[in-house]
Amino acid sequence: MNCLIEDFIINNPNGLHARPGAFFVDTLKPFKSEVKICNTHRGEKQVNARSLLSLMVLGIKQGHNVRVLFRETMRPKRWKRCETPLRQVWVNNVLKENLFNKK
Q1: Which among 27, 42, 91, 100 counts the fewest CB atoms within 10 Å?
Q2: How remote is the C-alpha of 72 from its chain's centroid?
Q3: CB 31 within 8 A of CB 72
């Protein structure tokens, strides 16, 4: 299994509450990967990043560190071709909304 891991610091003054959380979930729709997120500020518990309710349970506040993990089952050669575009598209979409700062 291939994995792409991105670490962020939450920039939004209100944390990752319902509205930015919904935006975050929407940014994942184009991707078929399994996506997990954890609030490393509070521990290593990973939840389904495609679920707004799961995001709310993490209690992500401004200044918290979060880790997003994309897991893909495709073959390594195909993954190598997809990893860079996935990183660029998804990270750029999230960063342009000023929700996160890249760690």
Answers
A1: 42
A2: 14
A3: no
Residue pair 58/51 in contact (Cβ under 8 Å)? The answer is no
Exposed/middle/buried for residue 42 (C-beta within 10 Å: 0-12, 13-18, 19+) = middle
Q: What is the pLDDT of residue 33?
A: 79
Q: Of 38, 71, 40, give the one whose Cα is nearest residue 57.
A: 38
57, containing H or E segment: helix 52-57
Average pLDDT, the chain: 77
- Indicate which CATH number applies to the domain containing 32: 3.30.1340.10
| Domain region containing 56 | 2-102
Q: How many CB atoms lie within 10 A of CB 26?
A: 12
Please indicate whether residue 37 or residue 14 has the higher confidence score (pLDDT): 37
